[in-house]
Amino acid sequence: MQMYLYIHDAILREVAELETKARELNREDAEEIAALAERMTWFHTMVKQHEHAEEEILFPAMNARHEFVAETYQFDHDDFEAHVFDGIDEAFAGLGRAEGNGERKAAGRLLYRQNVALHEHMRLHISKENELLVPKLLEEFDVSEQAEIAGGMAGLFDPPLMAQTVGWMYRGQNAEDRAGMVAFLEAILPEEAFTGISNMLAGID
Predict the structure, then answer these.
(1) Could you report the per-residue pLDDT of 64-80, keeping only the tens digit for each?
(2) Which domain holds residue 196?
(3) I need a labelling partner for 36 at 20 to 30 A (CA). Which of 27, 119, 146, 204 fits?
(4) Domain assignment present for 152
C-alpha cells in the first residue's frame, strides 16, 4: 500500500501549491487565470478518478471486514464536490465574466477562500486515511491482497490519465520513493506499458 501513500503525498503538495497560486493570482492576467483553471481542472479530474477507485475497490474490501468503515470516507468525497469544487468553479466563472475591479476582486477572493477550504478538507481527509485506514489495511490484508487492491485501483485509471498522474506523482518524490514507485509499476503493468511509462519517467528531473 506504499503506492497509496505516494498519491496522497502528491495530493497534499498540490493543494498547498494551488492555495498559494490562488492567493498570488493576478486577477488582471487572463493567461494566468486560464493556466490556473486548467491546472485545477486536471487536478479535480484526477482526484475524482482516485476517489472512484477507492469507492469501487478499496472501500468494499474494507467493508467486507469492518462494516460501515467506508461510508465515513465516502461522505467526505461527496462533501468535496458541493462545498469545495463547486465554489472553485463558480470563482473561475466569476473571473471570466467580471466587469470592473470590484467583481474581479470578489471572484478572486472567493477563489482563494475555496482553495484554502480545499487544502484543509484534503489535509483532514487524507490524514484520516493515512492514520486510520491504512494501518487497518496493513493489519487485515496480506501483501498479495494489498497488491491486488492497489493493482485494481490503478487499473481503473484510463491509460492517458494514469501516465499523467504517475508523472505528476514522480516529480515530487525523493530518490528512494521514486525507486519504490518504479518497482510497483513494474510489478502491476504489462511489459509494454511499463516500458512506455519508465521511459517517460526517465525524462523527469
Answers:
(1) 887 767 788 889 999 99
(2) 158-205
(3) 204
(4) no
pLDDT tens string 166-200? 899 998 888 888 898 888 888 877 888 888 888 89
Interior CA angle at 32 toward 27 and 38, to 5°? 115
- 1/95 Cα distance (integer angstroms): 40
Residue 48's CATH number? 1.20.120
Residue 131 covered by a domain: yes
Residue 91 falls inside a structural domain: yes
Asked if residue 187 and residue 116 are part of one domain, the reply reads no
Q: Please check whether residues 17 and 52 belong to one and the same domain.
A: yes
Total structural domains within the chain? 2
